[in-house]
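Aim 2 progress update. The chain analyzed this quarter is reproduced below.
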Amino acid sequence: MTTFSTIQSIQEAWSVRKTGLQDTRRQTIERRERAINLALAKGIPNTRDEEWKYTSLRPLIDRQFDLIDGLRHDGGPVDGSLVARINARLAVNAIPIVFINGRLDLSWPGSEALDSDYFRTLSEAELEEDSTFWDEWQSTQGMDQLFAGINAGLAHEGVVLVLNAEQFLKRPIHIIHLATKDHPNAARINRVVVSVPELADVIVYEEFISMDVLSLKPRVGEWTNSLTQFKLGPKAKCAYYRIVSSPNSFHTGSVTAVLDRDSQLDTFSLAIGSRFARINIDVKFTAPGAECTLDGLYLLQGEEHVDHHTTVDHTVGNCKTNQLYKGILADKGRAVFNGKIYLRKDAQGSEAYQSNKNLLLSSEAEVDTKPQLEIDANDVKATHGAAIGSINPAELFYLRSRCIGEAEATAMLCHGFAEECVMKVKDDDARALLRDRVREWFKLFALTHSPSDPLTTKVIDLAARKILNEEKP
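Predicted structure tokens:
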């Protein structure tokens, strides 16, 4: 499929989508069309573009996903056993919002706890006169990117969470995007908007799950294109934990955030399986005193490819960014990390720290990392760095010299590498959930590798148990 035909298919999809929006307000249609035009203005990127130098879109383009009718496969009713298994994965005391094969299921057990005081569907929000939930996010740099624009224009369904000032949600929100069937040409396009006004506080989980994780059965994956947007008011707080666990599937995710005075955003991105994934996270500081934590962990095996691109824009002074991304790669896993931090000329007194570290368990695994700082201010504190390597033989020798077996010593080192990142999560329940997902990856790794290699199996099993602190070193 050529670049021209790809653009043409997006334009055709918009034409069909526009026809289905005739009952929607004219301003909404115009905004959606503007988003599509903005996305297509730069054309389809290729590896000659700096932002896509290490990630080719060819695997995604060649599949010719159906953008027009991505929701026609609803998968039928969901059986009770699956509901129980999904609910068992929810964060402690969380309120679920569940998309099944792209469709929002408000009948899901537990969803009745959602309060109309702050919860609306995307279609409901678009029918309202107040359009600020749309306009105020257009200023972020990420909205001119291809996949964010496709989502803003073509989004099938979505949710809008608008809290009240000083409102504290005691229960976290856990958004689940669940794929249950083999629909190799289906495109799932969902949008999530979260507005946290002055002094409000909320915890949001967003998890992308395919049945591979639950049944361990091979499945031909669909394409999920998500857009999640945050707006934080003065002194607002929000914690956002994002998990992609969809082996054999294609995933393009965009996250944008606008931070006001003295607000605080804590994020963690966990990617533990995708045939192809590109995750863009764009944060913009608009007033002094705001803080942002952008951490992440990616665990890859087979021929999986995960690309993280993060952008933090310090447009004002006295703001702070902390960023740590780590990766463990096995087999022919391929990871890309590109982290950009801009310290503009008015960002005096700001602090920005960025680090990317990678552990390769195979000679065929590959990482391309590019941390970036662009500093136009003279009164700032900023550092950045990257490291790629295998298990340190000296560290392994030291542990073995203390009468620790090779398998257990290797497991301890893997555990320590991953744990540094997970331990930064402040919330106890979120930290426990992330540890549980990491253990799943280790178990899947053990199952998909040759049982004739007892050392590898033992290492992974030990590492999995140690990450959950199920046994002491």
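The first strand starts at residue 95 and ends at 100. Residues 392-473 form one domain. These observations will guide the mutagenesis experiments scheduled for the next reporting period.
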